């Protein structure tokens, strides 16, 4: 693996993905019963935005930095802003990845499993998740192994109520197909679980085909959320998409109220847009 998320942490795609993750966890933890969370491509857990990697291509400046200081933001952004402020008293210097966000949101009765294949990033992740004075309520089982193999081996999770995040680096030519297959297999084993699948939105046809493969698995309710911050004709990652299977009940309304303002806030030029589609 060559992909290192430290170069991209806190960009517009991270912001979309992590807002949705935090909203899902906030809803799921309202009930007293325990939940399980599995993060298939966990990364380092925390990212230093003053590091050489983050400064070389400071994508976070057009992502997390724009929502960190947003006093009149829509209410649905509040849980994500609270998470950022828990790590950053004033200036935005540290960005939380999905493992930290989950560990922060979960309760002692919940379970958290994290999978990261890159040896250096996995070592960094173990240090983040260990008790470190950052008020994490929940430690995790950390696995240095292939995400798709781990999904086959570790599902179903300890608790019936579950959230599974699939977020590949898309280095491999078959990552879309592998993720779609893993999602279909996961739905067979955790039929009531909330699945979040993040994708770069570079080839809309490829994303549509992959979604069709997943939806052919059964009549599962889903939301698809697309966010573009600039025209698709420009180089680089300008748009991303989330497929949410078995979405929590309030999520569609929260995102419908948030996305117009979020799109305007994160826009990097002409062509910025957002879209939500649903089924079930």
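Sequence proposed for the structure above (280 residues):
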């Amino acid at each position: 693996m060559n992909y290192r998320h430290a170069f991209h942490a806190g960009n517009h795609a991270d912001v979309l993905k992590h807002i949705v993750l935090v909203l899902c966890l906030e809803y799921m933890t309202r009930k007293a019963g325990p939940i399980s969370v599995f993060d298939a491509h966990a990364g380092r857990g925390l990212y230093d935005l003053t590091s050489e990697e983050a400064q070389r291509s400071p994508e976070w400046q057009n992502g997390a930095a724009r929502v960190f200081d947003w006093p009149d933001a829509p209410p649905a952004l509040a849980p994500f802003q609270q998470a950022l402020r828990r790590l950053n008293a004033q200036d935005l210097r540290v960005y939380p990845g999905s493992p930290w966000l989950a560990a922060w949101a979960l309760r002692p009765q919940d379970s958290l499993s994290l999978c990261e294949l890159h040896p250096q990033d996995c070592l960094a992740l173990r240090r983040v998740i260990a008790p470190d004075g950052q008020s994490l309520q929940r430690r995790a089982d950390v696995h240095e192994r292939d995400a798709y193999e781990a999904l086959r081996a570790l599902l179903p999770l300890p608790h019936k109520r579950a959230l599974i995040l699939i977020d590949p680096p898309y280095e491999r030519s078959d990552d879309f197909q592998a993720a779609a297959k893993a999602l279909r297999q996961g739905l067979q084993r955790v039929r009531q679980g909330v699945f979040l699948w993040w994708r770069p939105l570079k080839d809309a046809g490829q994303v549509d085909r992959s979604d069709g493969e997943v939806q052919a698995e059964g009549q599962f309710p889903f939301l698809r959320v697309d966010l573009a911050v600039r025209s698709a004709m420009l180089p680089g990652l300008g748009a991303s998409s989330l497929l949410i299977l078995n979405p929590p009940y309030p999520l569609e309304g929260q995102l419908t109220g948030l996305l117009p303002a979020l799109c305007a806030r994160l826009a990097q030029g002409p062509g910025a847009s957002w879209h939500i589609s649903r089924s079930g």
